[in-house]
């Protein structure tokens, strides 16, 4: 059961500069008054009533808190405290200051597969721990794979953002159409019952990108991307995979499997020869292979640009919503305008699935 403290967070922490912003709040640096330790304070606006559209549903916040409390692991961001006021909830989280893994890699001139594997091991360790608790992340993507700090020569991986995560109760059948198009599994698009295997598909996509600098199913539009996923349209183009080992390709192929029951689990991934070679020859093949840094840097640059573009788009959308709400007071026929705005950032799969159905 999630425990929310009614005290004022500022009695315990000095709230400092803004580190980031999102749909329903912001993250600020918070310095603990007793120890001087710095944390990240995630301020989340909570809906005041069931009919309100401003802020998050309290049950969603409770679910995220309960999940974070259940997944205490060195490769998962730590939740220290939770405070609640009338209008918002504040999560005191581990301050993850190393930035995104992909940004860290993009700064390098070259990277061997063996070095990339060390990062994959940590991702799989954190994910495997979650899955052992019957918890799926459901939003694995480069933006949610961070490094603990910038100064360590071998920084720890930290999985973050558990807003879409789900705890599976015994015998439960769970469906969700949320996620980011190029990383979601076919069963998400098809609105089929989900399991932790959906995360393993995302791991396959992330590994493919990490090694080649290409996204396996990326199309010219989100609709095309989803069609490519359903059709399993991907390959290992020699122009981009010439320095990739055969074991790495095999690793990806055992994850990008349409039938979720046939995908490797996180535990099986850690035993795969690419991660844990069985012979000296396999180890030698890894040591001679490297990731395609030229295309990887291009992919990461485009990804960062798109993130910036999406943030501007969201800000513009919010401005339009405010204008729409003002005008609706004069014209009752326009009162539904806010719900007509498509939020493809938070629920792209459901919206795009409807479009695909209507066009097929």
UniProtKB/TrEMBL annotation:
Pfam family, one: Pkinase
GO molecular function term, any single one: ATP binding
Domain Protein kinase: residue ranges: 13-275
GO cellular component, one term: nucleus
Tagged with keyword Thylakoid: no
Region (Disordered), start-end ranges: 335-360
SMART domains: S_TKc (SM00220)
Keyword terms: ATP-binding, Kinase, Nucleotide-binding, Serine/threonine-protein kinase, Transferase
EC number from the UniProt entry: 2.7.11.1
EC top class named in words: transferase
GO biological process, one term: intracellular signal transduction
UniProt superkingdom: Eukaryota
Binding, ATP: 42
PANTHER family: PROTEIN KINASE DOMAIN-CONTAINING PROTEIN, SERINE/THREONINE-PROTEIN KINASE 17
Similarity comment text for this entry: Belongs to the protein kinase superfamily.
Name of this protein: non-specific serine/threonine protein kinase
Primary gene name: LOC103356672
